[in-house]
């Protein structure tokens, strides 16, 4: 097996990974985006959650009652936060896929929508504007926004949110197309930079909303790193050859007893720090392509060189192309 080239990933620059897609070699620009290795973040918006706000509607009634105590909300924050970096910082670091869960705020007048993970995060509109500002400055970068959980939202909330998405990105939005047609060259030619995946039947009413089933993201739901890696291998082997993207969620999920045993330590200190090296080693052993990895997500993407490691996998496609010629 040929040793991977040293000296950094294709597309990586001296300034980091802010323009890694635009810097990819010509041979990779015509490959479907579903065949490239793309770094993503899990619960991408959770770098800030509001411990002073009510607990979100994504939580069980018993948790909502307990959370009337401010100390409980402080503990919840330790387990709700899965990222340290803002959207802008994640984008500058090379993250291109964003896992988004959203909710209205019960009792609030109007239809404003917020990010949510146990506790409420920032307004979705503010996050979308931050992303669009980055895209304005980096016209060859492409992002995937995966709206996969909705809470306390009726159709009017959905229409409000979808109009916000349209207002934020306008002509940058890529309408639904055959997945295999969507390459970097295709996106650049049409001046598109954003693919929106919307896991709700209303996607059918808007041509720029891709159905959720085009972005499968199997979830291991385990605290055991060995079970996680086995799950990632199994689901990768079951990946559709054509017609969808694919998310490998390289994340560990705490159970109630995990949280109870390590209340004050939080997610990062209990599960993530200890297991990230093994997860990163799994990433390094992967290969993108038709039946290979596509999007890989992680918690706390800055703790190791996660984005650069995923981007570097695209070198293997380049070597494959060179050997074919």
What does this protein look like?
It is a single chain. With 325 residues, the chain is of the alpha/beta class. 37% of the residues lie in helices and 14% in strands. The chain contains 12 helices and 9 strands. The longest helix is centred in the last third of the chain and has 19 residues, at 266-284. Mean pLDDT is 86; it is low at 1-8.
Overview in brief:
The protein is an alpha/beta fold. 37% of the residues lie in helices and 14% in strands.
Structure keywords:
325 residues; alpha/beta; nine-stranded mixed sheet; 12 helices; disordered N terminus
Low-confidence stretches: 1-8
Global geometry: globular
Order of helices and strands: HEHHHEEEHEHHEEHEHHEHH
Tell me what portion of residues adopts beta-strand conformation. 5-15%
What is the CA-based Rg, rounded? 19 Å
Q: How many beta-strand segments?
A: 9
Mean pLDDT: 86
By DSSP (H or I, 4+ residues per run), the number of helices equals 12
* Helix content, binned percent: 25-40%
Distance from N terminus to C terminus (CA atoms, Å) equals: 18 Å
What structural class do the secondary elements suggest?
alpha/beta
- Main β sheet profile: 9 strands, mixed
Helices and strands, with pairings:
Elements: H1 26-29, E1 38-41, H2 61-66, H3 70-80, H4 87-92, E2 97-104, E3 113-117, E4 119-123, H5 124-137, E5 143-151, H6 155-169, H7 184-190, E6 194-198, E7 209-211, H8 225-237, E8 247-249, H9 256-261, H10 266-284, E9 295-298, H11 306-312, H12 314-324
Helix pairs in contact: 5-6
